[in-house]
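Q: My collaborator sent me two sequences in one message, no labels, and asked for predicted structures for both. Can we handle them in order? The first one she listed is below.
A: Yes, handling them in the order given. First sequence, followed by its structure tokens:
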Amino acid sequence: MILVVLVLVEIILGWQLGTLTLSFPLMTKNVVISKVADANLSMILWTKCIYMIWVFKVLPLRDIAVTPLKDLIGQSISLKHQEFKIREELKSILYHEEIFLRQKSRCEWLKLGDRNTSYFYRRTIQRRKFNKITALRDADGDWVFDPDMLKSEVVNFFQNLYGEDPSQLENLPHSVFPSLSSEDVNFLGRNVTNKEIKAALFDMAPFKTLGSDGFQAGFFQNQWDNVGGTICEWVKNVFGGDNIDPGFNNTLIVLIPTVQNPKNFSQFRPISLCSVLKLVMKVIANRFKSIFLKIIGQEQAGFIASRSIIDNVIIAQEVLHSKRTKKKLQWMAIKIDLEKAYDRVR
């Protein structure tokens, strides 16, 4: 394990000093992208090192730890110390194995407890089966099984859903919508500070699914003292007008089923997997939070932070209860399937 720790320390120092030598040739124009790519490849080699340690060291240690050495060869003090050392080393390695499998299982509700590596492994397999897409209905209602056709249909569906239609904005009256004051506009346009960037990063869940860069937010949070300066400089340059390099704008889009057996594309929730790029969006979102109450009405529950979907269920129950008790009034209940608040935002 000492070797593993030394390798990790070397990767962090290489990030700081720029001495990692595994750069992608097409990514060296951007310092952050180059460092992330180098660190990612180094982490891959580090993972392989962990696997070799597991094969050649952990399995033999397990066999040795089954039977205490002192029971085999007398009561030697040196053997007792050796047994203690072996058990502690095995305990440390198994602890890191549990962390690795826990992250792969995406099990967020279980934070503490006994070692559950087999449980985490089953959770990982179950999650993969649940998220796997084998066939879906297209716009005409026909089943599509071919993977390439599925990809094409997915792209077309979400392009139509989220694509911009400028013609719909031309006829909207401008006077009926709330507007921002000059103070709010200046607040949104002020320079970004390191404090804002750090707050946005540490507001992200540390062990969510990693993006195409190969890193979770927990890596940048844990090593903020070493990598924070480079990250802050890149975010400030983006707000200063620099173009986002295509290497960072390469975001993985994953479709999460919202029902047990999805049959069409509307029954999936798309999420974007990215780490550093999300910082820019998080900083913007945090600024908008402070002025949202000025432009969003109370009935627009989908835009209000901390508003739970259960609130809408309670309101619906109260409406139906009033319908039953006040029989003199002519009530009518209509059940409609509305898309989420952000699904049609242009």
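Q: And the one she listed second?
A: Here it is, processed independently of the first:
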Amino acid sequence: MLNKFRRVIHGLLSVYCGLASFNMGSRGLWLAIFVWSVAAMSLELLIHEGVKYHQEETKT
């Protein structure tokens, strides 16, 4: 379930970045790569923290 959600988000980010780079040229490509990497890292961190929080809540 989590991996499916992660794949969908990564897919949407890839599509967005492709469209942004197509519309803005090479400057847009670098901007899109930067946005994609930051969003992917923050999504991973958010998922990791959410899972850790959920595990702690179910322990008690």
